C-alpha cells in the first residue's frame, strides 16, 4: 500500500438518482428531500459532514432536483416574514441552513450510476481526498461515521469505506466487503484490508456479512479508477467496481464504523428512520412513545 495524506475538506453527495423504490412520492420531488420528522434526508447528511469537519460540500443533482438547491440557498423573504411575526428562533433556524457550510452543485445529465455521479464531481474535487455520503442514507450518531473514516484516512493515507454487519440472508441487498483483518491501535478489529468487493451476492456466495453502508473517504486516484470502469449491472457505472480497482492498486480499508444506519431510500427503511428519530425527539419523543404503546395489540 502506498500512503498519501492530506486533510479531508470536501464531500460529494450524489443525489441525482431517480428514486424508483419510493414511487410515486418521488415522481416530482427528489427522494433526498423527503422529511424525517422535520428535516429533509439530505440535511441530516449535510449536518454529518459539518460535524465531521468538512468545509466544502459538492451536491450532484440532476433534472427535477432543484428543490435541493433551493433548500440550502438563503431565503430572505421567509426570514423577514418570520422576523416580522416575532418568530426569531425559526428565522435563525432557516438562516443557519444556508450558512452551515460552502455548497457547490454539479449536474449529472443522466442517472448512469453512483460511480458516474461521483466522477461528475471530479473537477470540483480536484487533486485531494474527499468523502462521499449517499444522500438517502442517514447515520444519526453523535460521533459521525464520516468523521470516523476521516480519522482513518488522515492517519494512514489510505481510503476507507464504512461497513456494518448485515443479516446473512440479506447480503443480496448490499455491496459486500471481503476483508483481511488488519487490527491496529486505536481501531483494533474494526479495521480490515479490502481484498475484494462483491455487488449484491446471494447469501451462499457472499464472502462475509459486512455490508457497504454509504459512507466513504477516498483518495483522488479513485477518479482514474472510475474512468477505467465500464458500465456493469443495469448499464450503470458502479462505484463498487472502481473501489475494487482502487483496493488492488493502492489499497483500501473497510472500517466497521460505530453507529446505526438507515437506508431511507426505500419505504420500510424510511419508516424505521422516522419512528426512531421521532422517539429521540426532545420535544415530543415521550408523547410519541406513549402513543405507540397504545397501538400495541
Ligand atoms: P440509489 O440506488 O439508492 O438511488 O443510489 P436511486 O437510483 O435514486 O434509487 P432507486 O434504486 O431507483 O430507488 C444512492 C444515491 O446515489 C444517487 C442517488 O440519488 C442516491 O442518493 N445516485 C444514484 C446518483 O446521484 N446518480 C445515479 O445515477 C444513481
Describe this structure as you would to a colleague.
The structure is a single chain. The chain has helices at residues 41-51, 66-72, 76-84, 88-99, 114-120, 122-125, 145-156, 222-227, 239-249, 267-280, 285-295; strands spanning 10-14, 35-36, 39-40, 56-61, 102-107, 130-133, 137-138, 160-165, 175-181, 191-199, 210-218, 253-256, 262-263. It has a single domain, classed as Spore Coat Polysaccharide Biosynthesis Protein SpsA, Chain A (Alpha-Beta Complex), CATH 3.90.550. It is globular and about 60 Å long. The chain has eleven helices and 13 strands. The protein starts with 9 loop residues before the first strand and ends with a helix. It has a nine-stranded mixed beta sheet with strand order 5-4-1-6-11-8-12-10-9, sandwiched between helices. It has a two-stranded antiparallel ribbon with strand order 2-3. The longest helix is centred in the C-terminal third of the chain and has 14 residues, at 267-280. α3 (76-84) packs antiparallel against α4 (88-99), α5 packs across α9 (239-249) and α10 packs across α11 (285-295). It has 297 residues and is of the alpha/beta class. Bound molecules: uridine 5'-triphosphate (UTP).
List the helices and strands and how they pair.
Layout: E1 10-14, E2 35-36, E3 39-40, H1 41-51, E4 56-61, H2 66-72, H3 76-84, H4 88-99, E5 102-107, H5 114-120, H6 122-125, E6 130-133, E7 137-138, H7 145-156, E8 160-165, E9 175-181, E10 191-199, E11 210-218, H8 222-227, H9 239-249, E12 253-256, E13 262-263, H10 267-280, H11 285-295
Helix pairs in contact: 3-4, 5-9, 10-11
Bound molecules: uridine 5'-triphosphate.
Uridine 5'-triphosphate is lined by residues 14-22, 31-32, 60, 108, 111-114, 116-117, 134-136, 265.
Amino acid at each position: 500500500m502506498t500512503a498519501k495524506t492530506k486533510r479531508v475538506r470536501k464531500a460529494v453527495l450524489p443525489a441525482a438518482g431517480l428514486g424508483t423504490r419510493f414511487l410515486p412520492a418521488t415522481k416530482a420531488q427528489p427522494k433526498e428531500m423527503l422529511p424525517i420528522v422535520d428535516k429533509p434526508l439530505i440535511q441530516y447528511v449535510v449536518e454529518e459532514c459539518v460535524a465531521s469537519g468538512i468545509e466544502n460540500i459538492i451536491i450532484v443533482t440532476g433534472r427535477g432536483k432543484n428543490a435541493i438547491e433551493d433548500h440550502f440557498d438563503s431565503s430572505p423573504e421567509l426570514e423577514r416574514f418570520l422576523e416580522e411575526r416575532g418568530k426569531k428562533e425559526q428565522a435563525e433556524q432557516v438562516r443557519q441552513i444556508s450558512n452551515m457550510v460552502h455548497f457547490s452543485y454539479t449536474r449529472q445529465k443522466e442517472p448512469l450510476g453512483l460511480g458516474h455521479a461521483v466522477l461528475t464531481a471530479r473537477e470540483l474535487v480536484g487533486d485531494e481526498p474527499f468523502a462521499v455520503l449517499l444522500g438517502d442514507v442517514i447515520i444519526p450518531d453523535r460521533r459521525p461515521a464520516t468523521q470516523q473514516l476521516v480519522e482513518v484516512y488522515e492517519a494512514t493515507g489510505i481510503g476507507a469505506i464504512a461497513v456494518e454487519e448485515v443479516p446473512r440472508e440479506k447480503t443480496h441487498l448490499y455491496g459486500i466487503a471481503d476483508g483481511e483483518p488488519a487490527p491496529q491501535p486505536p481501531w483494533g478489529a474494526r479495521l480490515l484490508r479490502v481484498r475484494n468487493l462483491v455487488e449484491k451476492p446471494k447469501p451462499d456466495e457472499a464472502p462475509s456479512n459486512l455490508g457497504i453502508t454509504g459512507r466513504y473517504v477516498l483518495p483522488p486516484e479513485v477518479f482514474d479508477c472510475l474512468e477505467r470502469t465500464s458500465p456493469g449491472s443495469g448499464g450503470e457505472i458502479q462505484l463498487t467496481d472502481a473501489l475494487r480497482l482502487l483496493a488492488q492498486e493502492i489499497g483500501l480499508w473497510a472500517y466497521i464504523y460505530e453507529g446505526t444506519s438507515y437506508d431511507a431510500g426505500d419505504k420500510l427503511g424510511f419508516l424505521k428512520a422516522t419512528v426512531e428519530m421521532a422517539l429521540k425527539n426532545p420535544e415530543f419523543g415521550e408523547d410519541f412513545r406513549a402513543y405507540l404503546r397504545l397501538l400495541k395489540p
